[in-house]
Amino acid sequence: MVLPHRDMTKSVPEVFTIDEAATILKVKKSWLERKAASGEIPVSLLGGSYHFSPDHLWQIFAQFERKPTSGPSLIPAQDIPMIRRKKNPPAEIPDLQVTPLRPRPRRLPRQVDIAA
C-alpha cells in the first residue's frame, strides 16, 4: 500500500519551549513553570518538557486578561473627600520598678603553678 504524498511542513504544529513562551508572553520562566505544573494554564508535556502551541499562548493571554469592571468615574477627583486616619494618642506605659543592670564581676588572672 502506497501512502499519498503529503507536504509535512504544513501538518507539523508549531511549538514553543518554555523559554520561548516566557519570552513571547513577557513573563518569568519560573512563573510559567509553576502555572503549568499546577495545571492552571494549557500546556503540552512532550518528552518530559513543557511545550506551548500558539493556541496555548492565546488561551493563557485571554485567561489572565483583566477587563474594566465599570466605566469611568462620574465624580470628579476634586469632589471625592480625602479619608485620613485618626491619630490615636500614644499608649500609656505603666511605671514599672526596673532594677538597673550590674556589670559582671571581673575574672581573676589564673594562678600558674611553677614547679621548681
| SSE topology string | HEHHEEH
| Main sheet attributes: strand count, strand direction, barrel closure | 3 strands, antiparallel
CATH topology assignment of the domain at 13-63: Multidrug-efflux Transporter Regulator, Chain: A, Domain 2
User: Gap between N and C termini, in Å?
Assistant: 112 Å
Mean pLDDT: 80
Per DSSP, the total helix count is 4
Q: What is Rg? A: 35 Å
CATH architecture of the domain at 13-63: Orthogonal Bundle
The structure class reads: alpha+beta
Q: How much helix, percentage-wise, in residues?
A: 25-40%
- The number of strands is 3
Strand content: 5-15%
How would you describe the overall organization of this protein?
By secondary structure, the chain is an alpha+beta fold. The model has no long low-confidence stretch (mean pLDDT 80). The chain has a 3-stranded antiparallel sheet. The longest helix has 10 residues, at 29-38. Helix content is 28%, strand content 8%. It has 4 helices and 3 strands; from the N terminus they run H-E-H-H-E-E-H. It has a domain at 13-63: Multidrug-efflux Transporter Regulator, Chain: A, Domain 2.
